[in-house]
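Appendix B, record 7
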Amino acid sequence: MEIKPLSDHILIEAMPQEEKTESGIFLPQTAEKERPEQGKVVAVGVGKRLSSGKVIPWEVKKGDVVLFTKYGPNEIKVNGKEYLIAKEEDILAILE
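Structure tokens (predicted):
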């Protein structure tokens, strides 16, 4: 099944978090983990449509690795795989 976001929504595949802290401590699978803030753009909608009918072009594209707000995107599960759906305003930066 293919997912096609509508209007100004972006489908993101969250990137797995590090299993090791900055000081070198490995975290067990049972440790409480923070919600991810980085991910790869899987698909984008058509763009934000203004009341005049004009569509604002995207700043992100499929394949971009992005940094997003921690609690902005909505979590969804399709065919057993977890994704996030965000609006472009939830995207903070493109990581290069």
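Remarks on this record: The beta strands are 9-14, 38-44, 48-49, 55-56, 65-68, 74-78, 81-87, 91-95. The domain at 1-15+36-96 is CATH 2.30.33.40 (10 Kd Chaperonin, Protein Cpn10; Chain O).
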